[in-house]
Amino acid sequence: MPERRPPPATDESLTDEDWYGEDLGGRSYERVALRDIDMTETTSTSGATFIDCTFRGVRFNVSVHAGAAFSNCSFSNCSFFDASFTDCKFLGSTFERCTFDRFTVRGGDWSFVALAGADLRTASLEGVRMREADLTGARCDGATIRHVDLSGAWLGRATFARCDLRGSDVTAIDPLSTPLDGAIITWDQAAVLAAAMGLDVRPE
What we know:
The chain is mainly beta. It has one helix at residues 187-196; strands at residues 12-15, 28-30, 32-35, 43-44, 49-51, 54-56, 64-66, 69-71, 74-76, 84-86, 94-96, 104-106, 124-126, 144-146.
């Protein structure tokens, strides 16, 4: 299990602001602490940048983001109900005690993110780069995780029952200890998991 990273140090604080429905495109924040901000139905279709920021109790509900960057940020007690992120960067960001109901991610780079213990059962992630992500203990049962690069990811105690994993890198999954009942995979992925179980997979 990777070491827990502390939140980044911040120089400025924004608290109890109402950003409901605002367009965040073009905005840039660095080393800012955001507390109890209402970002419900915000959009950033032309990109927004948050670097080394901390988000506490922020509501991202029904927000739509494209091309935004949340690099090395910390999220705690945040809500992402029906939030959508397309081609966004979350490199090195951490999530604690956040909710992800109907959470959608399409493309982008989420490498090195920490989502330990996250409940992703209703989430949909497709075409995302999540190399060396920490998904320790994550609940992914019934989720859609397709064409996701999970190479080097930490998946101890994570569950993937009934999860659609087609096209994703499954080399980090230990099929002997990871619940995979009813998971949807391709023949190529089945061969990878069989080899991980010690089976000698050969053509006829």
